[in-house]
Amino acid sequence: MTAIAMPAPDRDVLARRREILSALQAIVPGEGVIHDEREMRAYETDALTAYRQLPLIVVLPETVDQVSRVLRYCYDNDVKVVPRGAGTSLSGGALPLEDGVLLSMMKFNQVLDIDYPNRAVVVQPGVTNLGITRAVEGEGFYYAPDPSSQIACSIGGNIAENSGGVHCLKYGLTTNNVLGLEMVLITGEVIRLGGKHLDSEGYDFLALMTGSEGLLGVVTEVTVRILQKPETARALLIGFPASEDGGRCVAEIIAAGIIPGGMEMMDRLAIHAAEDFVHAGYPLDVEALLIVELDGPEEEVDYLIGRVEEIARANEASHVRISASEEERMTFWAGRKAAFPAVGRISPDYLCMDGTIPRRELPKVLAGMRDLGEKHGLRVANVFHAGDGNLHPLILYDANKPGELEAAEAFGADILRLCVEVGGVLTGEHGVGIEKRDLMTEMFSEDDLKQQQRVKCAFDDKHLLNPGKVFPLLHRCAELGKMHVHKGQLPFPDIPRF
Amino acid sequence: MDATFKPQDTRQVEDAVKWAAAEEQPLEIVGHGSKRKLGRPVQAAHVLDLSDLTGVESYEPAELVLTVKAGTAIAEVEKLVGDNGQELSFEPMDYGPLLGEEPGRGTLGGVLAANLSGPRRIKAGAARDHVLGMEAVSGRGEIFNSGGKVVKNVTGYDLPRALCGSFGTLAVATTVTLKVNPKPETSATFLLAGLKEADAIDALCRAMGSSAEVSGAAHLPGGIDGEVGKTVLRLEGFETSVDYRFKSLEKLLAEFGAPARLAEAESGKLWRNIRDVVPFAGAHTPVWRVSVAPASGPMLVERLKAAFDMRAFFDWSGGLVWLSCDDGEIHEVEIRAALEETGGGHATLVRADPSVRSTVPVFQPQPGSLAALSRRLKEQFDAKGILNAGRMVAGV
After folding, report:
1. Given A172, A251, A459, which is nearest B129 (Cβ)?
2. Nearest-by-Cβ selection for B142 from A141, A450, A489
3. Fold category of B278-357 in CATH
4. What integer is the mean pLDDT of B143-150?
5. Does B57 touch chain A (CB under 8 A)?
6. Is the per-residue pLDDT at B31 higher than 50?
7. Looking at residue A472, what is its pLDDT?
8. Within this chain, do residues A280 and A336 fall inside the same structural domain, yes or no?
9. Low-confidence ranges of chain A (pLDDT < 50)
10. What is the pLDDT, as a whole number, of residue A2?
């Protein structure tokens, strides 16, 4: 374990493990409760593998009633709960707690209802993101948000993280594509939000749940919007001698009123790593490579390809290739999609960061990253959702060299501070989890964080759901409730009154 | 002593709310007051008037991001982005015509508080889908920021989005960051005449399920806007693309008859009228706004027509039903029961006298656990219940 500390385990809960185990076994029979250390190893980490922790007990419920009873038991007995989907979080959102029950939702794996007239699909939370598309693609439909882990990640996890993907500039994040949820509160109460209709009135709990990283409730059913697949898609592969030219090209594409289906950029190190790995035919004499994908009706795509090419040439592009076939389009993408493993080939380990910046700050941030790299003595490769300013710097390090993981983490933290400094945010799509938890104060004031915690207190007053994630410090809810106002402090003469 | 506070900046909003919280004096939060007739009448002696909190903080069209003070007129915001070839793609409706108010008024803060949208909702999302960040003052008098000023951000709970539609009962928004989008080059409407309701909604749903990228799908039965019923689909984008998609809809919907094509100007007028519920303007009959699964719209209306004298038309591919009770009665029980029987949704009473709106549940009543969660959230943000007291639910 490294720098990030988790809350001290509750000794009393650890001592009651046997009693808790038998209570959970009474709710979820048979193999639905795992307590053998060897079997629990499968759950000790997520995709942020630098952190590992065995849970107290693993529970895999199969029905909403079981979820409700497990949560109610934990609530009544002050036992912490860490909900988990497929365990693909890049920020440690599903890292177990020593004194917490790990609640795996992966037995909830059924597609419940496919409703084409209403363009809605109802699924259980353990269905994979791609599984939704697979269920409807026969009729030409798909589910738009496409995180790169879509083959493995669950839709319940997508709700928890508000997952994006390369197409979200045009088609939105998870939050823009979810219509309804069924969820269970820590008290065991089952709540339904939304449905196949739009914009339920009352407070928008759907918005709060999406991206809440498992801190507010456990999702047991999800209704999403599906879309008909675009008629066609074509891509341009554009190389620039300077990254500034690439950045300007992106801005001008958007200024021309074009919202591409995908717009990805890679820097020199990432281009070389990807090309060496998959031989996608990327130019190697460029500083920045841009993939622009246009999707939609054929005539529109043909027209826009021409417009984007003009803009690229006007911005000093040294290489422009346009996909002439579906095969060629896939080749353009192959390198980008393999960028992470490609970087994994040139370095024993890497840390993937996820800040978002205003796009105009790209040259400054790239230069800043180079300086930071020298300071920390590490290299960084950049892949970048160019349309929405979401950066994925990959910091290369070797975990076997003493001090390198710590250096990589410090480098990553400096990059995120830089993102905040230029007006951006800590995380665009990977979530805060444990990884960026201690950086929250870089972006938010104490009063900002207090309001976030008030949301938590409305849902989970005992802080039992996924504690230690997202927020650096936890006031008790009762303490937070105190009002610090002085009665009778009047009359605020500065305010114009009429 | 009744007071109107007219803060000039966020600090003064904070002062006013702090005072109100300390004295337990409820405040009515207003911008232009254009939506005062929406929701339940607020029980407050004092007014917090945000109409001086105006101005653009930053706008960079190439970033697709706009930050403005919450009291800025929505008309001004739309003009600003329009002058830069962009738009608020959620197409916020103007309640003025329906509620007998002057059209074109209202502030951006008000649009978000009511989570307004228009016909393009089905393609582009509602106001809440375009909110990226917010500075606000909680009912406890604490200034806070949430969200960010970039289009992709998952840092912390999505409070800015969640505060949309809360009718000013949790916090007072002072500055808002929005995502803006390019304005389409042109638009056209595909019009089928004389379809029966069930066929019309079938045609709309089929078009929505195609790759024609429809950005408006409405059905105006005969008697709503002219004698003959109109089933309309809006196409927006680059000209070549609009023409191409028009042809593809012609093929797809051939069995419903030959379409007429409304060009940009006429099309724009039609969709503004649908957006602002102009067919029911200028009258005083009770009007309900019902959100259902699109395909259930006609069934709901059929049931209600059998029960009382009413007219209705459909937006959102059938999923948004505007319903006028022409006998002057409210029919709350019938409408909510029929809604339940046709798959559920939300029915909101949007036009009625204040005396009615303070007794009939204006918003869809929530089941016990959800209502309790709403009360807990209110209590967390506004412990003394001073912000727009009673606007959504009695006592909250």
Report:
1. A172
2. A450
3. Alpha-Beta Plaits (3.30.70)
4. 96
5. no
6. yes
7. 84
8. yes
9. 1, 484-491, 493, 497
10. 53
Residues A270 and A351 in one domain: no
Residues of B in contact with A115 (CB under 8 A): 293, 295
Residues A332 and A394 reside in one and the same domain? no
Mean pLDDT, range B96-103, rounded to an integer: 96
Looking at residue A181, its pLDDT comes to 98
Q: Is a pLDDT exceeding 90 seen at residue B129?
A: yes
Closest-CA distance of chain B to residue A249, Å: 11
- pLDDT value, residue A486: 45
- CB contact at 8 A, A410 and A446: no
Pair (A318, A394) in one structural domain: no
- Domain match, A355 and A395 both: yes
Give A126-132 contacts, CB < 8 A, sequence gap 24+: A126/A85, A126/A86, A126/A154, A126/A155, A126/A156, A127/A154, A127/A155, A128/A86, A128/A152, A128/A153, A128/A154, A128/A155, A129/A153, A129/A154, A129/A155, A129/A158, A129/A163, A131/A155, A132/A224, A132/A226
What residues in A contact B213, CB-CB < 8 Å? 296-297
Average pLDDT for B19-25: 95
Is A276 found in the same domain as A260? yes
Closest in A207, A228, A429 to B128, CB measured: A207
Domain with residue A306: its CATH number is 3.30.70.3450
pLDDT in tens, B301-342: 999 999 999 999 999 999 999 999 999 999 999 999 999 999
CATH no. of B1-183+365-396: 3.30.465.10
Please provide the DSSP assignment of A221-283 as one string: EEEEE-EEPPSEEEEEEEEESSHHHHHHHHHHHHHTT---SEEEEEEHHHHHHHHHHH-----
Those of residues 250-289 in B touching chain A at CB distance below 8 A are none
Q: Do the beta carbons of residue B131 and residue A207 sit within 8 Å?
A: no
CB contact B301 to A (< 8 Å):
no
A200 contacts in chain B (CB < 8 Å): 291, 346, 364
CB-CB neighbors (< 8 A) of B392 in chain A: 201-202
Q: How many domains does chain A have?
A: 3
Write out the DSSP string of A147-215: -TTTTT-BHHHHHHHT---TTHHHH--GGGTEEEEEEE-TTS-EEEEE-SSS--SSS-HHHHHTT-TTS
The ipTM is 0.97
The two three-digit tokens of residue B164, written as one number: 């949309």
Q: Which residue, among B67, B154, B346, would best test binding to A if mutated, counting the most A CBs under 10 Å from its CB?
A: B154
Contact B165 A427 (CB under 8 A): no
Domain-embedded: residue A489: no
What residues contact B216, with CB distance under 8 A and at least 6 apart?
Answer: B119, B120, B122, B123, B189, B232, B233, B234, B271, B274, B315
Q: How far is CA A129 from CA A85, A113, A258, A395, A400, in A?
A: 11, 15, 27, 27, 35
Residue with tokens 């589910």: A143
Residue range B186-275, CATH number? 3.30.70.2190
Q: What predicted TM-score, i.e. pTM, was given to this entire model? A: 0.95
* Residue-wise pLDDT tens digits, B243-268: 999 999 999 999 999 999 999 999 99
Which of A45, A71, A104 is the C-terminal boundary of a domain? A104
Chain A touched by B9 (CB under 8 Å): no
DSSP 3-state percent helix, strand, coil across chain A (nearest 5): 40, 20, 40
Q: What is the mean pLDDT of residues B149-169?
A: 96
The parent domain of residue A243 ranges over 232-340
Fold match, B186-275 / B278-357? yes
The answer on A416 and A333 residing in a single domain is no
Chain B positions touching A430 (Cβ under 8 A) are 154
Q: Which of A116, A191, A201 sits opposite B165 (nearest CB)?
A: A201
